[in-house]
Amino acid sequence: MVEIKTPEQIARMRAAGLVVAEMHRRCAEAAVPGATTADLDRVAARTLADHGAKPNFLGYGGFTGNICTSVNDVVVHGIPDEKTVLKDGDLLSIDAGAIVDGWHADAAITIFVGGDADTERPARLTALNKVTEDSLWAGIAAMRKGNRLVDVSRAIESHIRRQPQPASGKYGIVEGYGGHGIGSEMHMDPHLLNYVDRRRGRGPKLVPGFCLAIEPMLTLGTPKTHVLADEWTVKSNDGTWASHWEHSVALTEEGPLVLTAVDGGRARLAALGVTAAPDPLA
């Protein structure tokens, strides 16, 4: 069962999405060499409190953080702690979520600790991060009335495979993990893979009110992962570094609205020839 949202419910999700965008902004500023991932979690908690929002990660299945902080070969679900000290050049995924008036938003960014200047980072890592982020926007652009869920998966995978591949062979599109429906809960049907699995069929038709958290995850090598003893932290099997990007997106009568982007996705979608839906909170 896919939950279809009304315009009023999408507006509430947009409010939650703007809180998530602010969490990312503040946490990225705090992600300096010497900071711990627990320091970032405290920044996230303060941001939620400042906006009267609730965390949707904290306590979820026993998770102990307000955000996920995944460093280098940790793909997703890294638990913030005092032991993980950030170093210059680390590749850090910050996955954040918020609840406003009972409605959820969820998004992730991946940044370099110490700055993102291409000249200061290995080319293979800057390429990994750019390909992952750009594949996210390719998937968002496929959120069109009449498309099927598989069209989003295909857009993500096709973009990745069209890019120059790393010296290791090809980007690993992480298996098993992916995006999800979102709305009155954080994780809802349908599950969205970042590649086409023909055994799953075409999936449901995309209609106005359909909301997805789209989140590609790539490594520089294997698509295979394993979960650590904490039952949360997901690492690449071969130790290659990973990138993870995510936005919550609502399909409206006017087109896609990126709930967790400050501008609603207008600039990035325009570059792809897609018009973003009007912001209900503007």
TrEMBL record:
The protein's enzyme class: hydrolase
Cofactor(s) for this UniProt protein: Co(2+); Zn(2+); Mn(2+); Fe(2+)
Cofactor binding, per record: Binds 2 divalent metal cations per subunit. Has a high-affinity and a low affinity metal-binding site. The true nature of the physiological cofactor is under debate. The enzyme is active with cobalt, zinc, manganese or divalent iron ions. Most likely, methionine aminopeptidases function as mononuclear Fe(2+)-metalloproteases under physiological conditions, and the catalytically relevant metal-binding site has been assigned to the histidine-containing high-affinity site.
Coiled coil feature spans: none
Stored InterPro entries: Creatinase/aminopeptidase-like (IPR036005), Pept_M24 (IPR000994), Pept_M24_MAP (IPR001714), Pept_M24A_MAP1 (IPR002467)
Keywords annotated in UniProt: Aminopeptidase, Hydrolase, Metal-binding, Protease
Superkingdom of this protein's organism: Bacteria
Keyword Hydrolase in annotation: yes
SUPFAM superfamilies assigned to the protein according to its UniProt record, in alphabetical order: Creatinase/aminopeptidase (SSF55920)
GO molecular function, one term: metal ion binding
Annotated binding of a divalent metal cation 2, by residue: D106, H180, E215, E246
Binding site for substrate: H77, H187
PANTHER family registered for this protein in UniProt: METHIONINE AMINOPEPTIDASE (PTHR43330:SF27)
UniProt family annotation: Belongs to the peptidase M24A family. Methionine aminopeptidase type 1 subfamily.
Role this protein plays: Removes the N-terminal methionine from nascent proteins. The N-terminal methionine is often cleaved when the second residue in the primary sequence is small and uncharged (Met-Ala-, Cys, Gly, Pro, Ser, Thr, or Val). Requires deformylation of the N(alpha)-formylated initiator methionine before it can be hydrolyzed.
Name used for this protein in its record: Methionine aminopeptidase
Organism: Streptomyces zhaozhouensis
